[in-house]
């Protein structure tokens, strides 16, 4: 197993690197490569372990997404996010479950609802990546991001309730709703407690490497503790991530830079690994239904896949427009969404590895010792939904976005907001510098340094205003950008000299590392100014 996981990881990173280099959609290419790998004779390919996904892959991805999300944006759009992340997974569970119950032989209603819960949560990783690349409006991206943070919690809790009914553990709907409420509230409390404790500890430490190390443990510990206490691990991780992301401004700059670099590297590795792992599961899945009639299997798969895609589309338009018709407050506070934007959100419903992990976690038998009803068929149908939505919706989503013209002017508005805020920050910095400069009126060396600081503050303000409303492609290289480029070239010259000095034996590696660290920070500052 360890060798096969290593092979998957290496191939995943290699394929993902090529996709990023040539601007291809990584999730779709990775799934396709995984499908091909699964049929290579003699190649060791791992069978998906639910614990691997739910305890080692899902928590850091959710935590990273939560830290990069805006608490204020989610709060402002809580109604739309709730309809997508809470109500829609429950509706999907019921609709898809009932369709499967009617079409799949031997599938009991509780087992069919298990299938519905398994395929209910969309995986918004690929949708957000496509939307970010094509410039979807920020409200749409906020909806997709907020949905991806919370829909797993809703679906997995519904899955737990339906599974309990299917194996003979739970009984009534009231008991199921109580379980749902306790899991959600427990996850919220645990996430807030963990976030508050970790935030205080990290601020107290003032040790960037240790602060980042603690941050890396947060999603795993939070998820494990919540699940051990029968709470929602997903909600706990998301809550802790949102809390710590909101409080990250209290950390030192070195910790924030380290956190971002480590988090993005882990995201790239896990996302690539996950999508390739989906593809290589095909032989395991198909082996379970080889004895079935492929005609019936194809009809069942088409019905479940169509229900999964259509229920999201049918759901989106009423929840987008009916509240505006009957609730004056919604009309006053929320801008009307365009029909095109609503369709883009409804079409961004690709499923992912969480669905497969939940399907693989279905037990082989019920509490009575009987085989779990149609378990092999549930696994196969889940696989069809995951691959089908990735290939159908994932490949066409960029075309849909371009055709419908769903783009925003967030970049222009961001530049305007940044320029105004930078102007205020620069003026406040100049005021404070004037106060400090009075004490150095008779100090010639400090007067020259104050003059340099004034130029630096002015350059920050100039960068913000020079390209306001227009990008570098429209106006060419600005004076500040040109100065930053020259500065970078001069830093590279210095870096080369330090390396030559080390190679000649005139300085050792410790001195070289110190010099490179200072030059790297200077170059990074130049990049931000440009």
TrEMBL record:
Primary localization class, coarse: membrane
Segments forming domain Cation/H+ exchanger transmembrane: 10-401
TM regions (residue ranges): 81-101, 177-201, 221-245, 266-286, 298-318, 339-362, 374-392
InterPro entries linked: Cation/H_exchanger_CPA1, Cation/H_exchanger_CPA1_bac, Cation/H_exchanger_TM
Keyword Membrane: yes
Keyword Zinc-finger among record annotations: no
Topology class, membrane: Multi-pass membrane protein
Subcellular compartments: Cell membrane
Assigned keywords, A-Z: Antiport, Cell membrane, Ion transport, Membrane, Sodium, Sodium transport, Transmembrane, Transmembrane helix, Transport
Family stated for the protein in its record: Belongs to the monovalent cation:proton antiporter 1 (CPA1) transporter (TC 2.A.36) family.
Function: Na(+)/H(+) antiporter that extrudes sodium in exchange for external protons.
Protein name (database record): CPA1 family transporter
Organism: Gordonia paraffinivorans NBRC 108238
